[in-house]
From TrEMBL:
<dbReference type="InterPro" id="IPR029052">
    <property type="entry name" value="Metallo-depent_PP-like"/>
</dbReference>
<dbReference type="Pfam" id="PF09423">
    <property type="entry name" value="PhoD"/>
</dbReference>
<dbReference type="InterPro" id="IPR038607">
    <property type="entry name" value="PhoD-like_sf"/>
</dbReference>
<protein>
    <submittedName>
        <fullName>Alkaline phosphatase</fullName>
    </submittedName>
</protein>
<feature type="domain" description="Phospholipase D N-terminal">
    <location>
        <begin position="49"/>
        <end position="147"/>
    </location>
</feature>
<dbReference type="InterPro" id="IPR018946">
    <property type="entry name" value="PhoD-like_MPP"/>
</dbReference>
<dbReference type="InterPro" id="IPR006311">
    <property type="entry name" value="TAT_signal"/>
</dbReference>
<dbReference type="InterPro" id="IPR052900">
    <property type="entry name" value="Phospholipid_Metab_Enz"/>
</dbReference>
<dbReference type="Pfam" id="PF16655">
    <property type="entry name" value="PhoD_N"/>
</dbReference>
<dbReference type="InterPro" id="IPR032093">
    <property type="entry name" value="PhoD_N"/>
</dbReference>
<feature type="domain" description="PhoD-like phosphatase metallophosphatase">
    <location>
        <begin position="160"/>
        <end position="478"/>
    </location>
</feature>
Amino acid sequence: MTSTRPGFDRRTFLQLAGVTSATVALGIAAPDAAGAAPGRPLRDGAFSLGVASGDPRPDGVVLWTRLAPEPLAADGHGGMPLRQVPVQYEVAEDERFRRIARRGTVIASPELAHSVHPEVRGLQPGREYFYRFRVGAQLSPAGRTRTLPAPGQRTGSFSFATGSCQAWYHGHFAAHRHLADEDLDAVFFLGDYIYEYGITESNLWRRGAPALGPEHRVEIETLEQYRLRYALHKSDPHLQAAHAAAPWLVTWDDHEVQNDYTADRSKYGISPEHFEHRRAVAYRAFYENLPLSLAALPNGPDGRVHRRFDVGSLARINMLDTRQFRDSLDLPAQQRSMLGGEQERWLYDGMVGSPATWNVIANGVTVAAITEDRTDQWDGFPAARGRLIEAMQRTSNPVVLTGDIHKHVAAELKADFADPASRTVGVELICTSIASDGDGAPTDKYAADWLQHPYVKLYDGRRGYVHCRMTPEELVSEFKIVPWVQADATAPIETVARFSTPAGSPGLHRKA
Ligand SMILES: [Fe+2]
């Protein structure tokens, strides 16, 4: 780092930062003196990847942006100089930023792709805020966010949407355009934020897409390639609008690293050493590009994204990691763990004793029993699923939120899936993809596999998201679709099914 400020070199800067120098370098918190080394002004368009907030708490939220004046620069650096850049943020009670609640400065550094993740604290519970960033003379677009209610507070309602699987090359993000218009307290993203495949004529179904250079044609595997792929996805204006509309709670599935990987194993014959490196850079790029707190910064190939949120007394939300800790399919099915021992204990400890009316389990892959050859889903982990179902029977109103399969499915979860007359212990709401698999159709060749089960109440193979509204009395889930995504982003939104789940009586009841 070179300094243009007399007597203020890198060493002085680090001394001033003192014990916080590590966090300064990570773009989390910076002392007021951190206006170091402004260098030449950045090129216009520093905020071309948008802004985001996430992981809301009663007293704060994580803000996010990543500076990238040239987001699709082939080297993955977003057109940024390889030096640290101070970024100011402000959080206001009003959209015009007249009543400022918090402001501060963080450092965007090349080590984290010039992303910043300030963790704002000292906010009021259960209220709306607006935020924006500034670098030099450039001001970011404003985002809207919302803190969670105070712990234990009686909460009248909690509205959220769930989304997953946004293969940029398969279609436009029309679903995000509509999601951004909803009045939401939160958005859950359940995995496959990016896809790792090379983008070629055969899979580029998004009509009118900008011409992409050869660097996009190969399967991604380096840190720079993952960064570039996130930038490609995040260049979509409708995804940016969805991030700017509400705080997101994200988890990952497989394509953030590689299709169908299991813990430390690729299914494509990559050596363990190579795959460990790949997982490390993929997890790092995930952190860099999403509004996650420092706790999610991976340590080499190890990341922590399972975490818990309480929405007053109304809901407890358990975000799961169903990829990193799962056992290999080489083990006998009855011995396989999906979550790993530590996460499984953590989940049941938090669910079974939970005082919340609703207990949400946000997870990557389908829990409901469908076919035994679906070994990438909980169907491949029958004993582990049995323990989950058993824990759900001792939990108040469990609700599983799932992505992954690129179909809308609503299912009742049974005490014994082999006996459809057995007790319903909870519900599973599976959201279809945002874009993966292109336009889709209401029904397809897979529908019969799902609809053969009386506990599966809905199947639809088009693109969209699920909207949910929880109150102390009821959960209403609405399955929304857009009729097309390949041609353009103009498709209208339609609700294909609406279900009521009364508190105290698990099940799915069709509403008009
Ligand atoms: Fe997917």
